[in-house]
Model the fold of this input.
Amino acid sequence: MKFLIVSLALLFLTAAREPSASPQYFQKVRDIQVASAVHQNYFVVDADLWAHARPDFTDLRIYTGDIQVPYALAAEDSSTATEQHDAPILNLGAVGTETHFDLDMEGLREYDRITLRLSATNFVATANVEGREALGEGAATRLGSSTIYDFSRERLGSSFVLRVPPSTFRYLHVRISGGVEPKQVLNAEISYLRESKAVWVSAGSCDAMEQRERETIVTCNLLPGAPLARLAFDVPHDSFNFRRTVTVFNARSTALVRGSISRIRMDKARPPVLAEELTLRVPCICNPETTALRVTIDNGDDPPLTGLRVEPQALERRVYFDPQGRSDLRLYYGDDKLGPPVYDYAKFFKKDDDAEAAQLGVEALNSAYTPRPDERPWSDRHPAVLWVAMIAAVAVLGGFAIRAILNVKSGNPPNA
Done:
């Protein structure tokens, strides 16, 4: 009896082994043309990998012979590192028609922008910034001017950011020309922004525009498996002062995201103002079966934007690796059962400034490909045997229970 119970427990607890990586189990293979065997290299994930590798690219493996070469996958997204601090406002007042004040930058090592909080609305003004080491004394260094504005009446947004070169002055003196009174200056936030720009690649194409009543409709076709991240809108430069609501639908007419595109150009303002937002982030679509989107642009009662073009885009993804002096490298992929790799190289990855671009060869079928053996637990592969064993165990246990009941009724000890 004990043997039967232990055997059943072993059947239930039998677990599948973690599939191991081996070149023979990958369906696709490509040669890697290394740029330098002694420096960090990278190659760009392309349309063939989008279509035939797993959506998360965790089945990618680089081999030299039968030895794996560790790698790190990185998306070339924009990044920012920001230090933000509030700066005390000193000597706030009016000089003629201008608003003047000083900012105390004590404790800040470096900065390159000032974000004002203002209660003023419906204005355009110029803010000039000077740097000083002593408050109100000594020579001042001009750090530049910025246009600040608020278009609440036109519903076109606002901007109160002053940009200056990276600076370390103890004090900043700010002069705002027109449109803002001293009492409307509420506070100032100082920051140092380190930025790196995203790298975008095409993820498909879009058809010509179609007009339906108040809406402009564009159908976009994605490359198979493309990890769509945003839509980029190209609007001719002679179209400005617009803000349109954009909605993106999938093939089932489910709304994926809603946002807006805009361009503001106030030539009549002094100084002129130009600001635009012509991209719309979309939740990542990495399903190989999703290939069509419908983009609708609500024009309201305004005429449609002429010459509008839309392009689906994906973030460029790069695979970084160290050839370690080897040039006979091959990329394998197309193994649905393989788990993600775990490399120390990826855990401690740091992109080298002099990393060189390797090139991928033409995609080919792996001539050594062999389907993986069935590595499921024994119980998953033989469910009928498992059910027979379970029924037999229940029958045996039931027999022991009936026997015990009969012994009790007859007055015999349970173990007799």
